[in-house]
Amino acid sequence: MEKLTKTTISQLKNFVDKTVTIDGWVYNKRVSGKIWFLLLRDGTGLAQCVIVKSEVDSENFELKNILSQESSVSITGTVRKDDRSVGGFEIGVQSILVHQIADEYPISPKEHGTDFLMNNRHLWMRSRKQNAILKIRHHVIKACRDFFDSNDFVLMDSPILTANAVEGTSDLFEVGYFNRSAFLTQSGQLYGEAGAMAFKKIYCFGPTFRAEKSKTRRHLTEFWMVEPEIAYCDLDENMTWAEKFVEYIVSHCIENCKAELDILERDISKLEKIKTPFPRITYDEAVKILEKKGVDFQYGSDFGGTDETLISEEYDCPVMIHRWPAEIKAFYMKRDKQNENLALGVDMLAPEGYGEIIGGGQREDEHDILVERINEHKLPIDVFGWYLDLRKYGSVPHSGFGLGIERAVTWISGIRHIRQTIPFPRTLTRLEP
Length: 433
Ligand code: 4AD
Ligand code: MG
Known about the structure:
- The protein is of the alpha+beta class and 433 residues long.
- 28% of the residues lie in helices and 28% in strands.
- The strands form three sheets. Strands 6, 10, 11, 12, 13, 14, 15, 16 and 17 form a nine-stranded mixed sheet that branches. The protein has a five-stranded mixed β-barrel with strand order 1-2-3-5-4. Strands 7-9-8 form a three-stranded antiparallel sheet, with no helix packed on it.
- Magnesium ion binds at residues 347, 356, 359.
């Protein structure tokens, strides 16, 4: 196929002493007498362009007075190696073609408040750090797909509009659906289970929704989740899949996102420690860690953000906590044969206080028990008919998990708040832009 890509800043190393044309935007400008410098941004990197009065026509030279930040330009010039320049190269300009002179750009290099930046998210994503975070997101997603594709999982899309809840009814988004109501999906898992019985190993990947009323730095109301589901798989094997998967994502990012992690000043040595096997502890053991650290923890309740940090501090790698009090876990979880009060669920906590990145477990595969659970949880049994069918026609032990993409990106990027890891975040207080 004919190559459709034009030269980009990221490829300048292949064009030393050659003439190139780069399409981009003005990032910055510095004028000093008979020479001026234009820092060009093209989405793949930054390059310093040097405009010398004697080397360009006067119209091009006078652009120094009118080219504003974010004006769109195509720059033709010769590539020179220059270690002092950003990226290691500079462009000796021959000509500049102007596409549009930008209005005064609201985001300058000076400090802005987060609210202002979030209101300008459609522009803020051009900034260096935001750009780096969203590229890491791209690579996290690519790594997810590559991992499952290369392990013979089939991609199976699950619906967004559903008739039933998956993860409890308290945070469901209800939408009008002709003459009845529907819910935005909280997880593709139940459909994934149908897929696992059809293909053995599947994954679904899509947006999921939770009407979270909490304003924390870990919660979005719309987030993306990748969810593998595996037939003939118990909790232990499920945990092995989860750790291999996370190890793969991290190593992919270390290898492919060096520049981005550098821009974010991420301590890569911490990521290099992410090697399987990851520690596996029971809920009971996790509670003991908290008690030893002097936390007044109520046995049987869920861990809060601070608890998660205290537990994960014990390890360099993500830690998997399994066998949870059944009352705080979803209706579909299988119980532990050794202790019926425990559910065979697993949560993976990221290190460095980033909290839960994965939730999953082994599913209840016996029809009558599942009916009991649906009733115990006061869920409407009539909309689960199809799900119960899966236990009537060749039911097998099966397991799966869900990784929150934005939680993983927050951790790998080493940033504080989840809202920067998705192009247009949705939270309790934000629906725009
Ligand atoms: O632990 P959760 O609720 O598990 C499930 O939904 C299962 N049905 C998944 C499965 O077994 N197939 O959510 C899974 C992950 C969490 O560990 C977290 O990473 C992310 O989804 N997550 C959120 N991310 C951002 N904002 C929120 N409000 C999130 N809620 C969950
Ligand atoms: Mg969870």
